[in-house]
Write a structure and sequence with these properties.
The chain has about 250 residues and is an alpha/beta fold. The protein has helices at about 10-30, 40-50, 80-85, 95-100, 105-115, 130-135, 135-150, 180-195, 200-205, 215-220, 240-249, and strands spanning about 1-5, 35-40, 60, 90, 120-125, 160-165, 205-210, 230. The chain binds 2-phosphoglycolic acid.
Length: about 250
Amino acid sequence: MIVANWKMNKGIVQSQQFAEELKAYAEKHKVVNADIVICPPYTSLDVVNKKISGSAIKLGAQNLFYETSGAFTGEVSAGMLKSCGCEYVILGHSERRKHFNETNAIVNKKVLKALDEGLKPIVCIGENLQEHDDKLTEPVIEEQLTKSLAHVSTEDIGNITIAYEPIWAIGTGKNATPHQAESVHNFLRKKIKKMYNENVSKNIRIIYGGSISPDNAKELFASPSVNGGLVGGASLEVESFVKIINSSL
Ligand code: PGA
């Protein structure tokens, strides 16, 4: 699974152009072995949806609000995302946690709402540099995992993708090594086995994010425990994004 997180980039014209080029690529190369998900800003969801319709590319949003409707100025509901054609939604991205004070409890409310409305959450967790240096990665991500997934049933967990994104690797050009990513993913699978069961822990998709580039994608995706990538900066150009998709096939 390869997810493009455009963050706050691209207006309508640029979004349409990207979607057209990527769709042409996906059709030409019959990319059926990967789930490709594009997560544009809210304002481009509808136009990107129209451009990718009929292709294997899927649409996701970068956030949602957990209420159904009402007086929540500036917020966007799960139902609105579905009406734009979204199948996925990124939740708990570290930039949302940092700049918009999203706690694990808020992320959990969003996860439950997304599942309730039939959206598939991509739940982001990851430690910051200080925590990484202090060797606190495991307790930090364990807390994020258990609290963000609280009350998620065994039936619903199959619709969740976990994105392990060490904060020190996001947008820094300093990716985790394949060994680091693999060992954290294995740790997460162990915890998920305890929370659910062996089957869930084997089948849940855990993707890596943080400075993925065409140069490092292949070795990051080589581990059986790494089921794909959440790509920020390198997803903004079709050429680099396609190279990353190719590295996963
Ligand atoms: P990056 O971002 O690839 O630019 O490091 C990843 C992310 O924030 O999801």
